[in-house]
Write a structure and sequence with these properties.
With 237 residues, the chain is of the alpha/beta class. It is built from six helices and twelve strands. It is 24% helix and 30% strand.
């Protein structure tokens, strides 16, 4: 598959910024990812991300690191950080920006060492793809944790994107297993990705999935628009 995301990051880093990434979703939403936002510093990050970076400690794996903004901040604080992304272009940019440890790999293929903190920011839990895949995804993440390690993730309850009925309920299409499962296509400079699945998960559903997989789930912070930051830890026996 074309590394559309990576090409956009490399262009921006090289000073060739002429347009943003366009996204198309199964929710009939056309949107864009502004490239400057992916290169933001700590002061430009939303409160959920700032709080997660404040809580990060020890040896850190930044999953879906993108341009490496989170990894760079933690590295500058003195933490040992590995930036992980399946996009070769993203990893190229991370190296160019000074991230010391990088890995161009999918998180599901990654099994190199253990960590005190796993970061899944900017809805990194979306990499699970679907609710039915979340159990295996969580178990893989748990396998990368050191004792007393933590998973810090933010996500959103996208129920607000569906039509609300008079009784207060929401109209969810019958062909959807879970309303937070979305299919995306990204486009940049007339190149498009193949459609890929992405998961947004409401906090209660995440907590229940964690309980079923021997993980504790704590709500750390609520964002301004149906979003939240959660901390997952291994259950103690």
């Amino acid at each position: 598959m074309e590394d559309v995301f990576g090409k956009a990051l490399m262009d921006y880093h090289a000073g060739n910024y002429t347009e943003d990434i366009i996204t198309f979703s199964s929710l009939d939403e056309k949107d864009c990812i502004p490239l400057p936002y992916l290169f933001r510093d700590i002061g430009e990050m939303p409160a959920l991300e700032q709080k997660a970076l404040d809580l990060a400690h020890g040896k850190v794996l930044d999953i879906g690191c993108g341009a490496g903004s989170h990894a760079l901040y933690l590295q500058e604080k003195g933490l040992e950080v590995t930036a992980l992304d399946s996009s070769a272009g993203a990893i190229h940019v991370c190296k160019k920006r000074g991230v010391a440890s990088t890995n161009n790999q999918s998180i599901l293929d990654y099994a190199e060492g253990s960590f005190d903190t796993l970061l899944l920011l900017m809805n990194g839990i979306g990499l699970a793809g679907s609710l039915k895949n979340l159990d295996a995804f969580l178990m893989h993440l748990a396998s990368l944790l050191r004792p007393n390690g933590q998973i810090l993730l933010d996500s959103s309850d996208i129920i607000y994107m569906f039509e609300q009925e008079e009784d207060g309920g929401y109209w969810i299409p019958s062909d959807v297993d879970y309303y937070g499962e979305v299919t995306f296509v990204m486009e940049y400079k007339n190149q498009k990705t193949a459609p890929f699945p992405w998961l947004y998960i409401d906090y209660d559903t995440l907590r229940n999935k964690c309980l079923a997989n021997n993980l504790s789930c704590e709500l750390i912070l609520l964002g301004p628009h149906y979003d939240y930051l959660a901390k997952l830890t291994l259950k103690e026996y």
